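TEACHING EXERCISE
Course module: macromolecular assemblies
Task: Read the component lines below, then compare them to the predicted structure of the full complex.
Student: A.B.
Group: 4
Components provided:
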Amino acid sequence: MTSRKDKPIKERLYYSLYRIRRVEEEIARIYPTDKIKSPVHLSIGQEAISVGVCEALRADDIVFGTYRGHALYLAKGGDLKRMIAELYGKITGCAKGKGGSMHMVDITKGVMGTSAIVASTIPESVGYAYAMKYQKKDSIIASFFGDGAVEEGVFHESLNFAALKRLPVIFVCENNLYAIHTHQRKRQAVPDICKRVAPYGIPVERIEGNDVLRLYDRMSVIVESTRRGETGPYFLECMTYRLREHVGPNEDFHLGYRTREEAKPWVQTDQVKRIGEMLEASQKEKIEQKVETEIMEAFAFAEKSPFPDASELYTDVFKED
Amino acid sequence: MIHNITYVDAIREAIDQEMDRDPSVILFGLDVDDPKAILGTTGGLAMKYGSERVFGTPLSEDAMTGAAIGMSLAGLRPIHVHIRMDFILLVMNQLFNMAAKSRYMSGGQVSVPIVVRSIIGKSWGQGAQHSQSLYSLLMHVPGLKVVVPSTPYDAKGCLSRAIRDDNPVMYVEHRLLYYQNGEVPTEPYMVNPGKARITVSGSDITLVGISYMQIECQRAQRYLEDVGVSAEVIDPIWLSPLDIDTIVASVRKTGRLCVVDNGWMTCGASAEIITQVMEKIQGTGDLRVRRMGFAPVTCPPSPTLETLFYPNGRTIASAAYEMVKGGTSDWLPQEREDLKEIEFKGPF
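Instructor-supplied answer key:
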């Protein structure tokens, strides 16, 4: 990378990483007041994966994700004000208060949907990719899911179909080692996920250590070959770590299913801190100030927005002709 | 122009015309492009429209349903076919959690224009897992439309309409209806959601027959006619949205309602229809209601048991006779050979 290109991307990465981290810290801070009317699955610790992938995507590329979807929504450009309003259950929310934290969506930014049912957006991603190919559009799809999703049958069905039709979809497995409180080694006979995906005829690659720069670099290459229709589907296993509890605003080391010791290396290599330290102090401060202002405005927007009118209960069930 | 065609050809014609009209319509499912072409309903379409638009899928019903939803989010109008309705149990997560809810939980940002075709089996020992009518499950969840056409006319008009609908439509066929012939316009036309049809007018009792049971109700009506009982027969056509007003108006007139379902009765379409009718007109007179449907057991393949499993024209007539005459009665009509072929001749 040239230094010219190097600097803006690090600024971009830091803006996105820091913004997601701070938004979620603020959600965690506000959460006990009960103003947030939705269970939150925070991405704190895992931001690097959404950011590293989405920074390499185009605005008209599409992402599908999971209930731990705040990071993906923001990294792909989802509207922050509407996100916080959605958490507050307000009519100005991205889903008018009908989706909540687990169903973040902003189709104007290509955030096509997130789901609480593990693995359920993986086939949607594949179908969307089929449509892109059929319509001769060059948008590509990034399909996000966790290490638990690879145990679902539909994951394997989706891989097979994507490979069979050589579809422009990049599977992004965020491996944070745990499905709720159960470690991957208690769930999978062969814990090497890449090894199990490769026989479908899909190129696989593991990104170690939550490394946002490495992920961004690799994605930039993979995205281009996928867009050119050369490779068909691609599978990335991105090693990462969730620092908060499965659901809720707190840490959960006291539960005993994992130790603070285990988390230590992930905290030490925290990507928000890492990328921040690569920037000049003045540049870093400028980004942080911008983000803090955005966050203040977003929460104020959510606070003063109205709740949905009673009539909203019955709208959006069907699209009327 | 009108031509007389089978239910099979009516389905095929609807798909063909919609695919011809709109390149966003695509068709897939296990074996849609094989030599048997889903009992002929997809015959010739793979040749005409190519393998990108018409393709057989891996045995991955769950993922292919999700893929259909994903395609629809990107602007396509997929038709996904299951040769037996029993297989939709493999895709209920995608239908219930995704297709039905995507619009609502996105606050109206997206819609899911998919059609899921499935065929209910009956007879020749279809047995436990090739005979189920699961549409009452589909009626349960808001966000899905459900249609059960019983004539070639409705098969074509409802399918064309389902393909053009911007929402998920569960299009439920019945294997025995595939033999039905009927008059069908050659041009495309729509049979719109939420409108039932009175197939025979009468005054003593209302018979609502769902899917293939529409044919059995029309047989029952003829048996009842022989003994001076005038039955009004209604085909709901669309179960969701359901045209309850047409049924209510009929029951106001007859005072008696027998809903004959092509499925089990508990929590079924028959229970739903009767409840809705009673909620609207209870207390307005001496109303009598009855459900008929599958025996509350697994469908047996042995012919002697299978016959007992299903209502038929004679047992429906017998039940209706009792409802009209009051008390209990042993009357069961002798089978009439001439009622083997029941065809709906219109008017449409």
